[in-house]
Protein backbone atom coordinates (compact mmCIF):
# COMPACT_ATOMS: atom_id res chain seq x y z
CA UNK A 1 0.00 0.00 0.00
CA UNK A 2 1.25 3.49 -0.82
CA UNK A 3 1.97 5.88 2.02
CA UNK A 4 -1.02 7.68 3.50
CA UNK A 5 -0.23 11.40 3.23
CA UNK A 6 -3.61 13.18 3.14
CA UNK A 7 -6.29 13.90 5.65
CA UNK A 8 -9.72 15.45 5.15
CA UNK A 9 -10.98 17.55 8.07
CA UNK A 10 -14.66 18.51 7.91
CA UNK A 11 -14.91 21.91 9.62
CA UNK A 12 -18.09 23.31 8.14
CA UNK A 13 -20.56 22.61 10.97
CA UNK A 14 -22.54 25.29 12.77
CA UNK A 15 -21.53 24.32 16.31
CA UNK A 16 -25.08 24.58 17.61
CA UNK A 17 -24.20 22.60 20.74
CA UNK A 18 -21.81 25.41 21.69
CA UNK A 19 -23.96 28.49 21.10
CA UNK A 20 -23.71 31.40 21.73
CA UNK A 21 -19.87 31.06 21.55
CA UNK A 22 -20.07 29.76 18.00
CA UNK A 23 -22.27 32.56 16.69
CA UNK A 24 -19.30 34.45 15.23
CA UNK A 25 -16.34 32.16 16.00
CA UNK A 26 -15.91 28.72 14.40
CA UNK A 27 -16.07 25.91 16.97
CA UNK A 28 -12.83 24.56 15.49
CA UNK A 29 -11.15 27.70 16.90
CA UNK A 30 -12.13 26.98 20.53
CA UNK A 31 -8.96 27.29 22.62
CA UNK A 32 -7.33 24.18 24.04
CA UNK A 33 -4.84 25.77 26.44
CA UNK A 34 -2.85 28.09 24.17
CA UNK A 35 -3.95 26.93 20.72
CA UNK A 36 -7.13 26.45 18.73
CA UNK A 37 -8.62 22.96 18.81
CA UNK A 38 -8.02 22.57 15.08
CA UNK A 39 -4.28 23.09 15.60
CA UNK A 40 -4.29 20.23 18.13
CA UNK A 41 -5.91 18.05 15.45
CA UNK A 42 -3.34 19.11 12.81
CA UNK A 43 -0.52 18.38 15.27
CA UNK A 44 -1.90 14.85 15.74
CA UNK A 45 -1.79 14.56 11.95
CA UNK A 46 1.78 15.86 11.76
CA UNK A 47 2.84 13.42 14.50
CA UNK A 48 1.30 10.70 12.26
CA UNK A 49 3.43 11.86 9.26
CA UNK A 50 0.53 13.47 7.36
CA UNK A 51 1.57 16.32 5.05
CA UNK A 52 -1.60 17.37 3.24
CA UNK A 53 -4.66 18.76 5.01
CA UNK A 54 -7.87 19.27 3.10
CA UNK A 55 -10.18 21.33 5.26
CA UNK A 56 -13.85 21.56 4.37
CA UNK A 57 -15.07 24.93 5.62
CA UNK A 58 -18.13 27.10 5.14
CA UNK A 59 -19.13 30.75 5.19
CA UNK A 60 -17.75 32.79 8.14
CA UNK A 61 -14.85 30.43 8.82
CA UNK A 62 -12.05 32.59 7.42
CA UNK A 63 -10.27 32.69 10.81
CA UNK A 64 -9.28 29.06 10.14
CA UNK A 65 -7.45 30.01 6.93
CA UNK A 66 -5.88 33.04 8.62
CA UNK A 67 -4.58 30.93 11.48
CA UNK A 68 -2.74 28.53 9.16
CA UNK A 69 -1.09 31.28 7.14
CA UNK A 70 2.03 33.42 7.40
CA UNK A 71 1.65 36.68 9.35
CA UNK A 72 4.68 38.82 8.34
CA UNK A 73 3.74 41.84 10.50
CA UNK A 74 3.33 39.72 13.65
CA UNK A 75 6.57 37.84 12.90
CA UNK A 76 8.48 41.11 12.45
CA UNK A 77 7.04 42.42 15.73
CA UNK A 78 8.02 39.27 17.64
CA UNK A 79 11.55 39.31 16.19
CA UNK A 80 11.99 42.96 17.13
CA UNK A 81 10.94 42.16 20.69
CA UNK A 82 13.23 39.12 21.02
CA UNK A 83 10.35 36.66 21.06
CA UNK A 84 11.59 34.49 18.21
CA UNK A 85 10.55 31.28 19.94
CA UNK A 86 6.94 32.36 19.41
CA UNK A 87 7.58 32.78 15.67
CA UNK A 88 8.87 29.22 15.60
CA UNK A 89 5.62 27.80 17.04
CA UNK A 90 3.62 29.47 14.25
CA UNK A 91 6.13 28.66 11.50
CA UNK A 92 6.67 24.99 12.27
CA UNK A 93 3.26 23.91 10.97
CA UNK A 94 3.49 26.02 7.82
CA UNK A 95 6.91 24.60 6.92
CA UNK A 96 5.87 20.96 7.13
CA UNK A 97 2.33 20.97 5.76
CA UNK A 98 0.14 21.95 2.84
CA UNK A 99 -3.42 23.16 3.20
CA UNK A 100 -6.26 22.97 0.71
CA UNK A 101 -9.66 24.50 1.46
CA UNK A 102 -12.95 23.29 0.05
CA UNK A 103 -16.20 25.14 0.75
CA UNK A 104 -19.42 23.41 1.71
CA UNK A 105 -22.31 25.66 0.71
CA UNK A 106 -25.11 23.76 2.42
CA UNK A 107 -25.07 21.73 5.65
CA UNK A 108 -25.77 18.39 3.97
CA UNK A 109 -23.92 16.16 6.42
CA UNK A 110 -20.53 14.60 7.09
CA UNK A 111 -20.68 12.33 4.03
CA UNK A 112 -21.36 15.31 1.79
CA UNK A 113 -18.43 17.26 3.28
CA UNK A 114 -16.06 14.35 2.55
CA UNK A 115 -17.52 13.91 -0.95
CA UNK A 116 -16.79 17.57 -1.75
CA UNK A 117 -13.06 16.89 -1.31
CA UNK A 118 -13.06 13.96 -3.77
CA UNK A 119 -10.98 15.81 -6.39
CA UNK A 120 -8.10 16.07 -3.86
CA UNK A 121 -7.80 12.29 -3.44
CA UNK A 122 -6.41 9.89 -6.07
CA UNK A 123 -6.55 6.10 -5.94
CA UNK A 124 -5.15 6.04 -2.41
CA UNK A 125 -6.04 5.60 1.24
CA UNK A 126 -6.56 8.80 3.21
CA UNK A 127 -7.43 9.88 6.73
CA UNK A 128 -10.50 11.66 8.08
CA UNK A 129 -10.23 13.55 11.38
CA UNK A 130 -13.33 15.03 13.01
CA UNK A 131 -12.20 18.12 14.93
CA UNK A 132 -14.89 17.73 17.65
CA UNK A 133 -13.06 14.62 18.82
CA UNK A 134 -9.85 15.30 20.71
CA UNK A 135 -7.98 12.11 21.53
CA UNK A 136 -5.30 12.34 24.19
CA UNK A 137 -2.95 9.39 23.76
CA UNK A 138 0.70 8.38 23.85
CA UNK A 139 0.72 7.28 20.20
CA UNK A 140 -1.33 9.62 18.01
CA UNK A 141 -4.77 8.08 17.39
CA UNK A 142 -4.54 8.54 13.63
CA UNK A 143 -1.15 6.80 13.56
CA UNK A 144 -2.67 3.87 15.45
CA UNK A 145 -5.27 3.50 12.67
CA UNK A 146 -2.67 3.95 9.90
CA UNK A 147 -0.62 1.09 11.35
CA UNK A 148 -3.66 -1.22 11.09
CA UNK A 149 -4.51 0.05 7.58
CA UNK A 150 -0.96 -0.79 6.35
CA UNK A 151 -1.13 -4.18 8.09
CA UNK A 152 -4.59 -5.18 6.76
CA UNK A 153 -4.48 -3.17 3.49
CA UNK A 154 -8.00 -1.99 4.19
CA UNK A 155 -10.09 0.83 5.64
CA UNK A 156 -10.05 1.22 9.43
CA UNK A 157 -12.35 3.19 11.71
CA UNK A 158 -11.69 4.21 15.31
CA UNK A 159 -14.11 2.89 17.92
CA UNK A 160 -14.65 3.02 21.66
CA UNK A 161 -16.95 1.22 24.05
CA UNK A 162 -19.94 3.28 25.15
CA UNK A 163 -22.88 2.77 27.53
CA UNK A 164 -25.71 1.47 25.33
CA UNK A 165 -28.00 4.40 26.17
CA UNK A 166 -25.53 6.65 24.28
CA UNK A 167 -25.94 4.67 21.02
CA UNK A 168 -28.34 7.28 19.51
CA UNK A 169 -25.42 9.78 19.42
CA UNK A 170 -22.99 7.61 17.42
CA UNK A 171 -22.39 5.38 14.46
CA UNK A 172 -22.35 1.81 15.84
CA UNK A 173 -20.61 -1.24 14.36
CA UNK A 174 -21.47 -4.92 14.45
CA UNK A 175 -18.54 -7.31 14.70
CA UNK A 176 -17.97 -9.88 11.96
CA UNK A 177 -14.81 -11.24 13.55
CA UNK A 178 -12.72 -10.29 16.57
CA UNK A 179 -9.04 -10.39 15.61
CA UNK A 180 -7.28 -9.17 18.77
CA UNK A 181 -8.54 -7.51 21.97
CA UNK A 182 -8.57 -4.17 20.13
CA UNK A 183 -9.08 -5.09 16.48
CA UNK A 184 -12.32 -6.20 14.83
CA UNK A 185 -13.48 -6.90 11.30
CA UNK A 186 -16.67 -4.92 10.81
CA UNK A 187 -19.89 -6.74 9.81
CA UNK A 188 -22.14 -3.70 9.47
CA UNK A 189 -22.46 -0.08 10.56
CA UNK A 190 -25.53 1.89 11.48
CA UNK A 191 -25.74 5.64 12.14
CA UNK A 192 -27.29 6.72 15.45
CA UNK A 193 -29.52 3.68 16.16
CA UNK A 194 -31.94 3.57 19.08
CA UNK A 195 -30.60 1.79 22.14
CA UNK A 196 -32.83 -1.18 21.23
CA UNK A 197 -31.48 -1.44 17.68
CA UNK A 198 -27.79 -0.95 18.49
CA UNK A 199 -25.90 -4.03 17.27
CA UNK A 200 -23.13 -3.56 19.90
CA UNK A 201 -21.69 -1.03 22.33
CA UNK A 202 -18.82 -0.22 19.96
CA UNK A 203 -19.20 3.36 18.73
CA UNK A 204 -17.38 5.09 15.89
CA UNK A 205 -15.26 8.03 17.02
CA UNK A 206 -13.80 10.74 14.82
CA UNK A 207 -10.80 9.10 13.14
CA UNK A 208 -10.94 7.05 9.95
CA UNK A 209 -8.55 5.71 7.33
CA UNK A 210 -10.59 5.13 4.19
CA UNK A 211 -10.11 3.66 0.75
CA UNK A 212 -10.78 6.05 -2.15
CA UNK A 213 -13.63 3.64 -2.97
CA UNK A 214 -15.66 5.52 -0.36
CA UNK A 215 -16.30 8.17 -3.05
CA UNK A 216 -18.14 5.65 -5.29
CA UNK A 217 -20.25 4.72 -2.29
CA UNK A 218 -20.92 8.38 -1.46
CA UNK A 219 -21.90 8.95 -5.11
CA UNK A 220 -24.29 6.02 -4.86
CA UNK A 221 -25.98 6.99 -1.60
CA UNK A 222 -26.24 10.64 -2.69
CA UNK A 223 -28.88 9.53 -5.17
CA UNK A 224 -31.02 8.06 -2.39
CA UNK A 225 -30.47 10.45 0.52
CA UNK A 226 -33.34 12.79 1.19
CA UNK A 227 -31.76 14.65 4.06
CA UNK A 228 -28.12 14.58 5.23
CA UNK A 229 -25.57 12.32 3.54
CA UNK A 230 -24.00 10.14 6.20
CA UNK A 231 -20.43 8.84 6.00
CA UNK A 232 -21.61 5.79 7.98
CA UNK A 233 -24.10 4.93 5.19
CA UNK A 234 -21.29 5.10 2.61
CA UNK A 235 -19.15 2.77 4.76
CA UNK A 236 -22.16 0.45 4.95
CA UNK A 237 -22.37 0.53 1.14
CA UNK A 238 -18.66 -0.36 0.86
CA UNK A 239 -19.27 -3.35 3.14
CA UNK A 240 -22.15 -4.50 0.92
CA UNK A 241 -19.71 -4.35 -1.99
CA UNK A 242 -17.48 -6.81 -0.09
CA UNK A 243 -14.86 -4.21 0.83
CA UNK A 244 -13.15 -5.16 4.08
CA UNK A 245 -13.43 -2.60 6.86
CA UNK A 246 -11.74 -2.94 10.25
CA UNK A 247 -12.47 -1.20 13.54
CA UNK A 248 -9.79 -0.45 16.09
CA UNK A 249 -10.30 0.47 19.75
CA UNK A 250 -7.85 3.34 19.87
CA UNK A 251 -5.75 3.60 22.97
CA UNK A 252 -6.24 6.98 24.55
CA UNK A 253 -8.98 9.13 26.00
CA UNK A 254 -11.44 10.80 23.68
CA UNK A 255 -13.21 14.07 24.44
CA UNK A 256 -16.15 15.42 22.50
CA UNK A 257 -15.34 19.13 22.62
CA UNK A 258 -18.53 20.01 20.75
CA UNK A 259 -20.12 20.55 24.18
CA UNK A 260 -18.91 22.81 27.03
CA UNK A 261 -18.57 19.83 29.43
CA UNK A 262 -16.40 17.83 27.01
CA UNK A 263 -14.32 20.90 26.24
CA UNK A 264 -13.60 21.64 29.92
CA UNK A 265 -12.63 17.99 30.53
CA UNK A 266 -10.29 18.06 27.51
CA UNK A 267 -8.57 21.21 28.73
CA UNK A 268 -8.03 19.79 32.21
CA UNK A 269 -6.63 16.57 30.78
CA UNK A 270 -4.30 18.40 28.36
CA UNK A 271 -3.17 20.78 31.13
CA UNK A 272 -2.28 17.87 33.41
CA UNK A 273 0.05 16.54 30.71
CA UNK A 274 1.58 19.86 29.74
CA UNK A 275 4.98 20.63 31.35
CA UNK A 276 4.15 24.32 31.73
CA UNK A 277 0.65 23.99 33.21
CA UNK A 278 0.59 20.63 35.01
CA UNK A 279 2.08 21.81 38.34
CA UNK A 280 -0.29 24.68 38.98
CA UNK A 281 -3.40 22.92 37.65
CA UNK A 282 -2.72 19.78 39.70
CA UNK A 283 -2.29 21.93 42.83
CA UNK A 284 -5.53 23.74 42.05
CA UNK A 285 -7.49 20.49 41.56
CA UNK A 286 -6.12 19.06 44.82
CA UNK A 287 -7.19 22.24 46.54
CA UNK A 288 -10.69 21.96 45.08
CA UNK A 289 -10.88 18.43 46.47
CA UNK A 290 -9.87 19.41 49.96
CA UNK A 291 -11.50 22.80 50.50
CA UNK A 292 -15.24 22.60 50.77
CA UNK A 293 -17.15 25.25 48.83
CA UNK A 294 -13.86 26.57 47.53
CA UNK A 295 -15.36 29.43 45.58
CA UNK A 296 -17.27 30.82 48.56
CA UNK A 297 -14.50 30.38 51.10
CA UNK A 298 -13.78 33.92 52.26
CA UNK A 299 -10.43 32.94 53.80
CA UNK A 300 -9.16 32.00 50.35
CA UNK A 301 -7.23 34.68 48.53
CA UNK A 302 -7.92 35.57 44.94
CA UNK A 303 -6.20 33.08 42.64
CA UNK A 304 -3.12 34.50 40.94
CA UNK A 305 -2.61 33.42 37.38
CA UNK A 306 0.73 31.76 36.74
C1 LIG B 1 -20.30 11.75 13.53
C2 LIG B 1 -20.52 10.44 12.81
C3 LIG B 1 -20.82 9.31 13.81
C4 LIG B 1 -19.69 9.24 14.83
C5 LIG B 1 -19.46 10.61 15.50
C6 LIG B 1 -18.22 10.58 16.38
O1 LIG B 1 -21.52 12.15 14.12
O2 LIG B 1 -21.60 10.57 11.89
O3 LIG B 1 -20.94 8.09 13.14
O4 LIG B 1 -20.01 8.27 15.81
O5 LIG B 1 -19.27 11.65 14.50
O6 LIG B 1 -17.99 11.80 17.00
P1 LIG B 1 -21.77 13.65 14.69
O7 LIG B 1 -21.19 13.66 16.07
O8 LIG B 1 -21.04 14.58 13.76
O9 LIG B 1 -23.25 13.82 14.67
What are the SSEs and their pairings?
Blueprint: E1 6-10, E2 31-32, E3 35-36, H1 37-47, E4 52-57, H2 62-67, H3 72-80, H4 84-96, E5 98-103, H5 110-116, E6 126-129, E7 133-136, H6 141-152, E8 155-161, E9 171-178, E10 183-191, E11 202-210, H7 214-222, H8 231-240, E12 245-249, E13 253-256, H9 260-273, H10 278-290
Parallel strand pairs: 1-4, 1-6, 4-5, 8-12
Antiparallel strand pairs: 2-3, 6-11, 7-13, 8-11, 9-10, 10-12
The structure holds 1-O-phosphono-alpha-D-glucopyranose.
1-O-phosphono-alpha-D-glucopyranose is lined by residues 110, 130, 132-133, 170-171, 191, 203-206, 230-232.
**Total number of domains:** 2
The kinds of small molecule bound in this structure are: 1-O-phosphono-alpha-D-glucopyranose
Question: Runs with pLDDT <50, length 5+?
Answer: none
According to CATH, the fold-level topology of the largest domain is Spore Coat Polysaccharide Biosynthesis Protein SpsA, Chain A
What is the CATH H-level superfamily of the largest domain?
Answer: Spore Coat Polysaccharide Biosynthesis Protein SpsA, Chain A
What count of helical segments does DSSP give?
10
Radius of gyration, taken over Cα atoms and rounded to an integer in Å? 21 Å
Shape: globular
Helix content: 25-40%
Q: Could you tell me the strand content as a percent range?
A: 15-25%
List SSEs in N-to-C order. EEEHEHHHEHEEHEEEEHHEEHH
Spatial gap, N to C terminus:
49 Å
The CATH architecture category of the largest domain equals Alpha-Beta Complex
**DSSP, total strands:** 13
CATH class of the largest domain: Alpha Beta
Give the class from helix and strand content and strand pairing: alpha/beta
- Mean pLDDT reading: 92
> Which sequence of strands runs across the widest sheet?
5-4-1-6-11-8-12-10-9
**Biggest sheet layout:** 9 strands, mixed
Amino acid sequence: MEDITKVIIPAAGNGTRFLPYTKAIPKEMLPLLDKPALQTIIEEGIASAIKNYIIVTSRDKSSIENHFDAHPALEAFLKEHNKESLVECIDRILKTTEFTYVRQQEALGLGHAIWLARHCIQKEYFGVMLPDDIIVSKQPALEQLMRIAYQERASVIAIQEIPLECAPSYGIISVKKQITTHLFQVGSVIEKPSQKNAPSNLAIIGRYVLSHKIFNSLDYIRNYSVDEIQLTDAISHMLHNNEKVFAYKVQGIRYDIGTPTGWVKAIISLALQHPHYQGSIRRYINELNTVESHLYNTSKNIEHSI
